[in-house]
Amino acid sequence: MYKCCFYIGPISDKTECTAAQGSLHSPGMNLPDRRENVKKALIAMSGGVDSSVAALLTKEQGYDIAGVTLKMFGNELIGVEGDSTCCSTSDVEDAESVCRRLGVPFYVFNFADKFEKEVVQRFVKAYEEGRTPNPCIDCNRYLKFGALFQRMEELGYDCIVTGHYARIEQAGRVCGTEADIAGGSDTDAESRMCAGMEADIADGSDTDAGSRMCAGIEIEPGRFLLKKALDPKKDQSYVLYSLTQEQLSHVLFPLGSMTKDETRKMAEAHGFINAKKHDSQDICFVPDGDYTGFIGRYTGKEYPHGDFVDEDGRVLGEHKGLIRYTVGQRKGLGLALPAPLYVCRKDIDRNQVVLAPNDRLFSKTLTVSDFNWIAFDEPEAPFRAAVKVRYSQKESPAEVTPLGGGKVRIDFDEPERAITPGQAAVVYDGDIVIGGGTIK
User: Fold this and answer.
1) Which ranges in 218-285 belong to alpha helices (H)?
2) Among 110, 92, 5, which Cα is nearest to 45's?
3) Which residues are catalytic?
4) Whole-number percent of the chain with pLDDT over 70
5) Edge-first strand listing for the sheet containing 315-319
6) Which helix (H) or strand (E) is 98 found in, with range?
């Protein structure tokens, strides 16, 4: 009989628990060989279909796996009753159900304090300072590949597996793709959990295994590369730009070469309860989408009203608090204007929202801070690349100039609309992520 393991709290609080291997697995799927050299993988499971199929593929490859759901927050934090959109009781039950079907252990890790400090408080602070943050990036940086990465090491696991749609490649090898996990290739310690396949893959990239060049800069042997998913509609490389070389060497993305339809079909074929579960579209801790309401409840503050002004300083009306507005916004201003105007910038010192016509939202230059270099170390000279400044848009050609101290200047060939402080700028060469940082 399967026994579910719940492990909540610091590593020192872990109590002994066991999980008998179940018999519910797909035809032909052998249970992992528990010899000493079998690799151990910790599967980050949200309760959704993607992470569930990632668990399945990793187990079929022969890894000794355990599923884990991260408890990020309770309803008291987000001010709702019933299930929220993340780490709810139903999510935990769905993840547990998949683990039971795979016959593997399941744990719940309580990272609520860490989540509040590193994600929620950063989110609130950014809005209060006039920026528009992307909390998913901070969740990846500080929780999934921060706190969970540390827990992985403490528990003696070799890698973290997630359901992200992205790929990892290392010096002539393709790592963490569906072909890697499901291909049945040998994975030893020296290969760093790679499939051992040559990296000359037909993905449209101009950086093949022979040249090992990226943006005209040579990639050092053995370097780990983060790459886009093969399915452009599902690619999540933009929110993963903060991954370090150490993290990339211990992470697997089994879904990187799959489509969402393929993922769902595989889940359905294996009888997973969440095969048709909808994807979450909201910020997980703001399930109703009202982030200003959440910030007000969380801080207990009343954010002062102020003036809408044009670029010449003429007062156009009254705004209801700076946190309610973001660059490029037109709807919800509550103004009757003779011509359309958009939020151009926010003046924190004067508590003003500056409005301007659409053509004033375009700019060619931005500066990025806290830049994380992935494909190579910070170069000495500028280079050509493509840059993406929002998750949902395509990248645009630009010149990238390293400034030192984690700062980078980006000069686009053509003006970009509504470049927004607090969002990420991620630099690509073809499907390779060169690195990324936060727009200042």
Assistant:
1) 245-248, 260-269
2) 92
3) 139, 284
4) 79
5) 315-319, 306-309, 352-356, 342-347
6) helix 89-102
Cβ atoms 437, 408 nearer than 8 A: yes
Q: What are phi and psi of 71, to 5 degrees?
A: -85, 110
How far apart are alpha carbons 309 and 182 in whole angstroms? 58
Q: Which two tokens stand for residue 182?
A: 């499901």
- The answer on pLDDT for 308 being more than 80 is yes
Strand partners, 424: 438
Radius of gyration of the chain (CA): 23
Look up residue 20 and give its two tokens.
């008998």
3-state DSSP assignment of residue 368? strand
Question: At 324, phi and psi to the nearest 5?
Answer: -85, -5
Domain 361-439 has CATH 3.40.50.10310: no
Whether 6 has a pLDDT exceeding 80, the answer reads no
Tell me how far apart the alpha carbons of residues 11 and 153 are, in angstroms, rounded to a whole number.
Answer: 11
Structure-token pair, residue 226: 């983060």
Dig out the tokens for 254 from the structure: 């089994």
Domain chopping of the chain, boundaries: 11-269, 303-360, 361-439
> How many other C-beta atoms are found inside a 10 Å radius of the C-beta of residue 125?
12
* Residue-wise pLDDT tens digits, 274-307: 999 988 767 889 988 899 999 999 999 999 999 9
Angle among Cα 99, 69, 12 to the nearest 5 degrees reads 110
pTM listed for this prediction: 0.84
Tokens 């211990």 belong to which residue?
250
**303-360 homologous superfamily:** Adenine nucleotide alpha hydrolases-like domains (2.30.30.280)
